[in-house]
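Appendix B, Record 12. Input sequence as logged:
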Amino acid sequence: MIIVDERSGPLSPGAAPARMRASAESSPAGRRGAGRLAILVSAGTILFLIPALWNGHPFLFPDSEHYFIIGRSILSGLARLGGSAAAAGSGGAVMADPAASSDAAGGLAAIAGGRSPVYALLLYVLSALASVWWIIVLQSVLVSWLTVTFLDLVWERYRPGAVLAGLAALALLTSAGAFSGFLMPDVFAATFVLAALLLVFDTAASRGKTLAYAGVVALSLVMHATIVLLAGSALVLIALCQLVPFADRHVRRASLLWIGGALILGLAFNAAYLRLAERVSGHPVGTPPYLMARVIADGPGRLLLTETCTPSDRPFAACAFAGRHFVDHNDFLWGSGSPGPNFSTAPAALRTALGAEEGRFVRAAILHHPIAQAAASTRNALRQLVSVDMTEFVIGTHLLVDDAEFRTAAILKTIPKLDRCLAQPGVCPPEAALVPTLQGAFGVNLLSCLAAMAVTALYWALRPRLGADTRARLDRLMLIGTGICLLLLVNAIACGALSGPHDRYQARLAWLSALFLVALAVHAGGPGEPQPARKPV
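Logged structural output:
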């Protein structure tokens, strides 16, 4: 690989780039840049913490409890696996082995496969052994660092005032601050996208920065299954981008290898975890049949049960629910819409059978009613694309505090402010003061998503008529914006069509469109300070 400085010509391959990086990083200007970065990231961290601080505690969701007890189970299992009974008991009651009977009956085991073990362990260790705020601080630091680095990349010069203004706008006016303060792994969908964009478009990144970007990509990939789908789609988009003549010079060719390698590592880790968890626990670790719930809620699965299940012929374990009307997929999984039998209340043997036949059942439902399923999936994806509300942040803690099923949640004991809510159920609205602000963030999320899609589409339509200087200045940023918009679309399809529309699924990424618009508004105002452009050839 030869590195080209557009001002002075070709440099020697290998030695020159390393010498240039070492010189830049050890120079007074480089040290000042590192100090400035630290100051901006620290300021951004504080800004992203404001929503949770104003709320009085991190934002919660019923699944937060699942992650907490799964983390506790993992730590206990690791202690047993290592033969260290003392380590397993060192944390007192909090460190005790989780309800083994519940696991054996399929309760925790039936959902543990759908929860990230890394996030579960991180959440439990930090909240139970230190403070529940530490995981929020870590999330805020990560979001702040990626955002500051991204703005530095696209603006191509130091703009500390503009960076601070952008951080404040994102933290207080969009969903970025709320997700940074959310005790759920949703924020890592956005950190994946930002780190992947930096890997692709920061063509002059040092080896240290490249490893840091790749590390965030790998970490994000093990936080949620839907992020794996985003990674696969990102690889396709990167490959297509490299086929576009004018786009090739903005893209790091090795980014395919970095992201592809991280994806392989993530998949291997998840497979190894499931095998180890089954070995330690002594029973299969499963995941709820989300796809089965999806096709039943969409209609084809329900029709399949009506058509194939008879008293004498029950080809599917799901025939146990034949004739049962479910309001939606959550009603099938958790009974959240109507009384009656559902997956969560089914006997352990039936839950196991449902998980085992999920693929066969879904294929049969689609083959029997392909047009109906295609239409339903399209509707769900479109609904998900514009579902960026923040309602789930308001109801999450209420469900944990007011619902009898969750009032004994172990994670609540790590949050002192919620003691009063537990003592007086139904009279403690923890998020009431934040409702107007969260609803305002919903409006900004939706408008920024629509505006980003409109702006990128308009740019590519008008690009042939623009001057060469304008194209040279805007092409890279518009490629980035297009990538964000396409990944928002992929996220809507993956989450809406496969799992079901949920506001937080799209809101977790929607703030990236606002970040793009902030970057574009400042960048379009001027070319910035000229810097030598280096590119691999």
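The chain has a mean pLDDT of 81.
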